[in-house]
Amino acid sequence: MRILIVEDEQRLAAALAQLLKERQYAVDVAHDGNTGLDLALTDCYDLLVLDVMLPGQSGLDIVRQVRQAGLDVPILLLTAKDTVDDRVTGLDAGADDYLVKPFATKELLARIRALTRRTGNVSGPDTLTVGPFSMHLAERTIFRDGQPLSLTAKEFQLLELLMRNHGKVMSKELILDRVWGPDAEVIGNAVENYVHFLRKKIDVPGRPSYIETVRGVGYVFRVRDSQEER
Length: 230
Fold this sequence. Notes:
This protein is of the alpha/beta class. It has 2 domains: 2-116, Rossmann fold (3-Layer(aba) Sandwich), CATH 3.40.50; 127-221, Winged helix-like DNA-binding domain superfamily/Winged helix DNA-binding domain (Arc Repressor Mutant, subunit A, Orthogonal Bundle). It is built from 9 helices and 12 strands. A hairpin with a 2-residue loop joins strand 6 (127-130) and strand 7. Helix 2 runs parallel beside helix 3, helix 6 (153-164) packs across helix 7 and helix 6 crosses helix 8 (190-202). Mean pLDDT is 86; it is low at 120-124. It comes from Alicyclobacillus macrosporangiidus.
């Protein structure tokens, strides 16, 4: 299961991430609300763990915008505020649970288990559709014009990221962070190589590539009208 932690106290964020990774969760971390919101809206998570007081967007702002986007991912708020009104405000905003700092590790893990048991599947829509592509997230399958494509796990992750952000330029650094992780050891031109592999599998011969290179920056996934013609 994938968990996003948005916490500006870097020691606490690192400790939480290590705790969850030791229990076989995949964890992403953001230290400000703007980055956290961007990750929550563009990636697929099974749980969001949000501090309430954050630089940029607050935890409550993130909750509201995630719900407005139609995502039903479980959300656990972490905060030092422990009044009834504070808890009610967080729950009314759309959070599923509320944990007051400082908290016991056992209680945090128990609440995470309870929240992830309620869903059992990845958050958000199960099918991601862009142009002729239809990606089924739970089954980890991808189709172009109804025909299945065979992708490796890393190719699937890269294509999912690009499709979720279609029309938006993604820098190589951001792609490395989202697909390989900030602590991963990446050899050589991993992004360029995997974009090359993807193009060979998803593009139609004689037509422009769905993955455009933005020189000096990164890549953008784009579907033109001519590419959607059957």
